[in-house]
Amino acid sequence: MRKYITYIGVLAIGLLIGWLVFGNNSKEKIQDHSTETAEEHWTCSMHPQIDLPQPGACPICGMDLIPKTASEEGLASDQFKMTKNAMALANIETVVIGNGSRNSNKLILSGKISANDKTSALQTAHFGGRIEQLNFKTVGEFVSKGALIATIYSPELLTAQNELIEAISIKESQPELYKAVRNKLKYWKVSEKQIQRIEQTKKVQSNFTMYANVSGYISEIFIEEGNHVTEGSPLFNVSNLGSVWADLDVYEKDIKNIKLGQTIEIYLNAYPNKIITAKIDFIDPILNNATRTVLVRATLNNKDNYLKPGMLITSEIAINPEANDSFVMVPKTAVMWTGKRSVVYVKASKSEPVFEMREVKLGNDSGANFEVLEGLKDGEEVVFNGTFTVDAAAQLQGKASMMNRSDNNSEEETTKALDIDKSKINTEFKKQLGEAVSAYIQLKDALVAGDANNGQKKAEDLRNSLNDVDMSLLKGDAHNEWMRILKQVKFATEDISNSKDIKVQRNSFLVLGKSFSEAINTFGIDSNNKPIYLEFCPMANDDKGGYWLSFEKEIKNPYFGKAMMSCGEVKATY
Length: 574
Known about the structure:
- The chain is α+β, with helices and mostly antiparallel strands and 574 residues long.
- It has 4 domains: 79-101 and 326-396, conserved putative lor/sdh protein from methanococcus maripaludis s2 fold, CATH 2.40.420.20; 105-116 and 241-323, Efflux pump adaptor protein, beta barrel domain (Elongation Factor Tu (Ef-tu), domain 3), CATH 2.40.30; 119-239, CATH 2.40.50.100; 422-573, no CATH class.
- The chain has helices at 2-35, 84-89, 155-168, 175-187, 192-201, 387-396, 427-448, 452-467, 476-497, 502-523, 540-543, and strands spanning 42-43, 66-67, 79-81, 93-96, 98-100, 106-115, 120-124, 129-134, 142-143, 148-153, 207-211, 216-221, 228-229, 234-239, 243-251, 263-268, 275-283, 293-301, 312-318, 327-331, 336-338, 341-347, 354-366, 369-374, 381-385, 533-537, 546-550, 569-573.
- The strands form 7 sheets. Strands 3, 5, 20, 21, 22, 23 and 24 form a 7-stranded antiparallel β-sheet that branches. Strands 6-15-18-17-16-19 form a 6-stranded antiparallel β-barrel. Strands 7-14-12-9 form a 4-stranded antiparallel β-sheet, with no helix packed on it.
- A hairpin with a 6-residue loop joins strand 16 and strand 17 (275-283).
- Helix 7 (427-448) packs antiparallel against helix 8 (452-467).
- The radius of gyration is 35 Å and the shape is globular.
């Protein structure tokens, strides 16, 4: 009996010790677990950048959201982790970046060749009429001074010829009148030989020839056969490419190193072994607010015609060593581009392979490296080998990547107006801006219809309308802001007018919608009391969203046309 009592006592003591050791911990664990609040996140299987705190429909495609896999403990929302084995297999390498200096005290700039506007000329109509025959119809053709460019039927010249024939009979009694009628034809550049033939035959010519008064390559054509022109109407632009400009962009921080007359060496992508030495003869007095750069220019001799406008160039400029600042430098292999963005992958942990994408603003090319203006600091570690593999891993984990931003603010990226008093903006400027917006909306209608040919024509109409906007009506900040917007609009308009591909046109049209809404928000507009609707489609621009302006409240999508005509909604009314 005493043995059983001993066993029971030992068992009781064991249970007591077990409860004391494990019971409280279990209770604590249960209590701790009960106090945790599991914060659920929901995402879209088609758009992993979506991250919402509750279930529902995807704001981009409308699909039902699914629970998002919880991120690894201690990682920020845009960070992701790779295994050491995966890094080794993909040969991913990182490097710690630091401050560096430019090689050999030289500033390296990039730019392009452009036509010399000082040697360009506009061929205009000498008299009004209808173009019966046009001898130059293609951009790039060479026109020699004195070449026959067109045959024109001109009612004005018919009347002037009859006046000359009548004046011949009173030549002796009223020589001044005869001379005035004769000179009238000369002012219209009718040749002496043609005038003499009219006097001899006393017959009126119905069609007159028109000759070029400039020489050069046609860079732009404004008319077609059958068009009616008035005296002074532009026929085409002519560029004399005997000399061209080398246009280079200099970042704001480097302006102090640039001066007029400075010698530069220019390297051509088309001719790698050719070096051109020139001198800077122009520095733009206005800084480009969008790129934070200043345009500098050198004039180049081009008698052999090997320099073509649009060619890409790089240049080296010797700078003062005392002014040679140090910069954070990043290897070129570490940088990836998507559109206008430059991104790198930063190693966020010293001990673990944890990465995050970082957008950076790059400065000048410095050999194997880029100067970093914004986005990175001295001592940070970046991926310089295997960057695309790291980007693919980010995409698979639904994190911010080169082609997929983690932010979901595309719809909220409506442009903010500068602090400019719209009531003080010149009313005539607002009227001219309204006419440009009308031309823009006609272009939008062409894209809605999917008509690329009409899109080209409407883009040219828009360009002409923009040329009619008098920027001198704006002063100070308003003037600078319009110049910034105008440059973006002109680039996009030029892209549309030069392409017959509807996809290219629609892609460039994205810039126009954003820029014109900026202009209206900043300056106001006179639209003849017509309401203008700002409309938005979240699926345009690879699901980043796109805006456009319309006179109609009904959605007619210019980015998809018939494929998704009604995709979008009205965001604002002007």
